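To whoever is on call:

I kicked off a structure prediction for a single chain this morning and the downstream step that reads the tokens threw a length-mismatch warning. I double-checked the sequence; it's 574 residues and nothing unusual in it as far as I can see. Pasting both halves so you can look.
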Amino acid sequence: MVDIDELVQHLCSKGFNCQKSLIDEFKIVSVKLKIVDKPIELIHFLRGEITGLPTFFLSSPNDYGQLAHVSIDNDSSVDLGSICVNDRDSVSVNFAMPLLAIEESLNRHIAILTKAITDPKWNRHELLREFSSNWLGVCDFNSKKILLTSASGKLEEVEVLRSLPNYNHGVNSYHLAQSQDSELSAIASLYWNNNTSKRAKSGKAIIIPLMDVEPAPLKKEELKSWYLNALISVKPENRKLLNEQYGRWNSREYWIIFNVDVPSGKTWFCLHFQAEKKHSLPMTAEQMQYWKIKAIPLRLFNKENVLPRGGANLDLAYRRVALIGAGSVGGEIAHKLSSAGIENLDIFDKDYYSIDNLYRHILPEEFLEIPKSYGLGFQLQRQFLWSKAKGISEKLLSLRNRQKLMSYDLIIIAIGSPTHERLFKEYLIENEVDVPVINTWLEGFGIGGHATLDIPDSNGCLLCAYVCQETLARGLNSNLNFIEANQNVTTNLAGCGEQFISYGAICSAQTAIMASDLAIKYLEEKIITSSKVSWKGSDYDANDNSIQLTHRYHQFSDSLQIKPLYDEDCDACS
């Protein structure tokens, strides 16, 4: 622990006016200074160990008006403001030199305060940029949060349904504000509707877009005047609708949900009004006398908000992808593509989910004894609420239909059957199906995995990966493989019907991530030429099982690097 006397002496030696003191029996260091003739006092609470960037608090923060990056806890008995100078956990702190770490942090705190106090334009910009987090400072967290499914931001009536009783977690613990234009997948919508029937309606609700907004108020007592001021920024045509239509509703309860563009993007926030008797929407100071007003935490729940926050790409929602193979590799690919934002995913596989699959497949045991493709479609729609993934009980060779295939932007084959894959490729060539295809497969014993991207009208195709490097003619085995051909690589536990290739979930996931990355890069137009990619694992298990490895394996050093697929000796390309 830092010695308080030593800290005070160090800071004084650096020119700071500081002294030690106590607040509620906590040891503190008080630093006093002036910024443009305004007296400032910063408070540092001594900690037993420096685990993050040391913090300083602004004493009597309400004396300085609204300052960017200074948050005030109105419910606290201590009159201190928290100053945000950085994400504390993202900063690597020299905890071995605590005096220097505290000094460095103090300088950062003073710099941010100086900027906020001396530059009003910057201060306002930052207050608006962080409007959402500042709004939370006046929210009533004893009230249930509200979940809004709207995306348009237009003036509209919405229905608010109360949270379900005795729910403290999950979407059922929120009040639900449903917009007429909300769009969810079939599975998610069914789940949503089943639960909305159990919810009680909660007053009148309306979404109001604003043209401009002032920074969030500092205190809850300021909400009424702040709200009336916000109404000034309603467009004239919308204000007319409020006066002539929505504002004439009579209710004991109103929910007003605002949205407005701020420097960080569109922000949404909610006010809840409650009265003893029914009244119309409060639009003037006189009407406000009948109402109690609270700021309620609001969570926007539409794909324009949720998907980018999770790293997904909204543009991928309009791409159509066919995935053939719903095994351990295909299941992971389906999950990764859906998490990236692909909504229209058709999953083809006739195999049923069995107990043998449990330890290397992403599906839970509830889906045992149903087709893997159906289970994946259901699971993906349940997790990714805007996904339209669906399972189809068909195999690769039954998909040789030009019209159907041409409806996709990308086909991904994850079945590990080179004969079927080559037959399918021959069909694509003969019928001029110019849809890009990714073939991906996993080799046993943790030795590696591969993926090829075959883009029509680009140099390179799947058959380039079948050129024999010795004869330069087309062979029957991929030249990307790490395991020599014509070896028994299966494990047999209980007769011919129980043979399997030895690989685990980690290898499946590695191959799937690699193939998914290739797919997403193509769909985002970051890759425009036919490509190949492999990952190389260790040879421990292969050696233990006397498996012979290829020359490529021993020479390979380009794991996960995307390379050109083209082979000049490919008879199809040339």
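Update from on-call: the warning came from a stale cache, not from the record. Cleared it. Sanity check on the structure: Residues 493-500 have pLDDT under 50 and may be disordered.
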